[in-house]
Amino acid sequence: MLYSESMRMALTALLANKLRSLLTMLGIIIGVGAVIAMISVGMGVRKNVTDSIASLGSNMLVIMPGSANRGGVRSAAGSTITLKYDDAEAIRKRVRNIDYVSPTVSGSYQIVYGNQNWNSSVTGVTPDYMSIQSLKVQSGSFITESDMSKRNRVAVIGTTVASNLFGTENPVGKNIRVNNAPYKIIGVLAAKGQSSMGRDQDDVVIIPLTTAQERMLGITYVQSINVQVASQDKMEQAQSEIETLLRQRHRITGGKEDDFTVRNLTSLMETMSQTTGMITLLLGSIAGISLIVGGIGIMNIMMVSVTERTREIGIRKALGATFRNIMMQFLIESVVISVIGGMIGIILGCAASMAISVVGDFSTVITIAPILISFFFSVGIGLFFGIYPARKAAKLDPIEALRYE
What pLDDT was estimated at residue 72? Predict the structure, then answer.
């Protein structure tokens, strides 16, 4: 009964000063809303980065020509011509726990169909590339070993290229021109969307590696080798074996620097996840400062309330209200302010997060954890900052309080 009466009196006191109560809640509302919105943005960044790296392939190693930067200026990875198709074949045959290997070359070309044209990335690959990149063919088929051995002028295109050149027409079986040479479209890839960096993963034309090397680029080397390892726990071992094998094949001995770079995308994903996790924590902490400010606002208003209601407190104590009764009344008032403010803040925070996602064309992630943490933290803030005003009210001398004008 005591609690229900104290709650009723707290709500009556808050409704008696609606504007002041709303302004008091404002700090909590902004704090809770900002924490939820900022954490959802941070988690959205983390998800986008993780999805972008995962879209490159699972358990993947990427071998690039050129040395890593190990002090001083070095050739940029991919800027030299030290990798060959035979290196990829050697990795496939001699390195354990390897599922797929696909050397690649690429260039940017104007793609022409009839009176339509589109500039896109043209990538030469082997059949394993489909499994490594987790690609799916929407219609038609992918490049085969027969296409590789015969150096066929065939192409598989992404949905962006298909829509810009063919509109609603089915591209399979049609001929396009790449670098003024005809290529027959044998398949259209299923859409993958944009990466976290904004790159359109569907704006691509894929042709056989041998065709790209000999008929389009006129080169004998490859620009990268993509390797998919059987399982994540074998990544380090596979990377070590690949580095040893390539050093042997390239006759690199002693302390000589490698003329290639092996990038472990799993390690990169872990590093990026840790980095984005720290960013999320930082954003949440900065937003959480406004919760502290809101708590100070609650204490300030409760102190004013105690001063205004000194005579009321004196009458209640004269009628038999105990220290605990008065303390409970003012604590409940401060907690009610923080609870209502927290609930409004949750609604506004979720709404702000969804608005950022829609307006900014950016994926945000709303989870229950930051909502619960920010809400209970706001309640704790209200309780903590309400203790001092409540104690001050409860310790008032009833005689002095009744004399107060």
Answer: 43
